[in-house]
Automatic annotation (TrEMBL):
Residues 8-84 form the HTH rpiR-type domain. InterPro entries: Homeodomain-like_sf (IPR009057), HTH_RpiR (IPR000281), RpiR-like (IPR047640), RpiR-like_SIS (IPR035472), SIS_dom (IPR001347), SIS_dom_sf (IPR046348), WH-like_DNA-bd_sf (IPR036388). The keyword Chloroplast does not apply. GO terms for molecular function: carbohydrate derivative binding; DNA binding; DNA-binding transcription factor activity. Keywords: DNA-binding, Transcription, Transcription regulation. It comes from Tractidigestivibacter scatoligenes. The keyword Ubl conjugation does not apply. This is RpiR family transcriptional regulator. The lineage of its organism: Bacteria, Bacillati, Actinomycetota, Coriobacteriia, Coriobacteriales. Residues 130-259 form the SIS domain.
């Protein structure tokens, strides 16, 4: 784990910022994502011509990704291409029923790359702070909206098994009310791929007004939710490489949540094994039914 931007890579930087790019910059991004196996051999002028945009747009695009020059970005792309070839990762195959086995393999490799990038983007300090906040919390509330809501509710159940007094309201209105009643010794965990949900922002504002520690798990560390968080755990999503304009996966978010859970569990194993035994005993009758 590093938490350094340089370890995120060009592809992941594009995917993180894609929604914030202009239409012209998205044309450059789409070209790079489509030709990322060979694009490092092209000049800025060639990329501009093949993307149908101006040289100025390419320069603006490079800066928006955090690179000082096109040469820096191209060098980073070349390193990614080399690493991909060393792992025999063929990202040009795509998905289709004509090759089910190849499609399954492609999805698997894409998800593995997603987890590798998420691991590289996490900092030890951030993870340690998150575990500390959760372990000492009087109440830990997990919140999400849309497809992130069931992830938050599942996390609350799992962390309860590890001895955390975890909750996850089923509606954003309920979460807003609960956040306004929380105490400084509580903890709020916000799960949001985009980091831009207005409903989650309101929930977070209520919690912050009460002095609550906040953890945000998001792919966009420059988002409004991340800006206000005490701890930001950045994840990487490669959904855009599998299907355009459809954020369907919480693969990396689950990886982060389960890593926090395991670190929390093993930090006080005896006590948490006792809590887990009590939890399993409580629901044993339901399992038998």
């Amino acid at each position: 784990m590093t938490g350094n931007e340089s370890h995120s890579g060009v592809v992941d930087a594009i995917l993180q910022r894609y929604e914030d790019l202009s239409d012209a910059e998205k044309a450059v991004a789409d070209f790079i994502l489509t030709h990322k196996g060979t694009v490092s051999s092209l000049s800025a002028v060639e990329i501009a011509r093949l993307s149908g945009i101006s040289n100025t747009t390419v320069s603006r695009f490079v800066r928006s990704l955090g690179y000082a020059s096109f040469a820096d970005m191209r060098y980073a792309l070349a390193r990614e291409e080399t690493a991909s070839k060393e792992r025999s990762f063929d990202d040009s195959r795509g998905i289709g029923l004509a090759d089910v086995q190849g499609s399954l393999d492609y999805v698997l490799e894409t998800k593995i790359e997603e987890l590798r990038s998420t691991f590289a983007s996490l900092s030890e300090e951030g993870v340690s702070k998150a575990v500390g906040a959760l372990s000492s919390a009087r109440i830990a509330m997990f919140v999400g909206v849309g497809s992130s809501l069931p992830i938050a509710q599942s996390a609350a159940i799992k962390f309860s098994q590890a001895g955390v007094n975890a909750i996850s309201p089923s509606t954003s209105d309920g979460a807003m009310i609960t956040a306004s009643l929380m105490q400084p010794e509580d903890c709020l965990v916000v799960i949001s791929n985009s980091g831009r949900s207005d409903r989650l922002r309101k929930i977070m504002n209520n919690a912050i007004d009460r002095g609550v520690s906040t953890i945000v798990i998001t792919r966009n560390e420059e988002s409004p939710l991340a800006d206000r968080a005490d701890v930001v755990l950045k994840v990487v999503s490669r959904d855009h490489l599998l299907v355009n304009d459809f954020d369907f996966s919480h693969n990396s978010i689950n990886y982060v949540l389960e890593s926090l859970l395991l670190l929390l569990f093993h930090s006080s194993r005896d006590a948490n094994e006792y809590n887990l035994e009590l939890f399993n005993r409580t629901i044993a009758s339901e399992k038998q039914g």
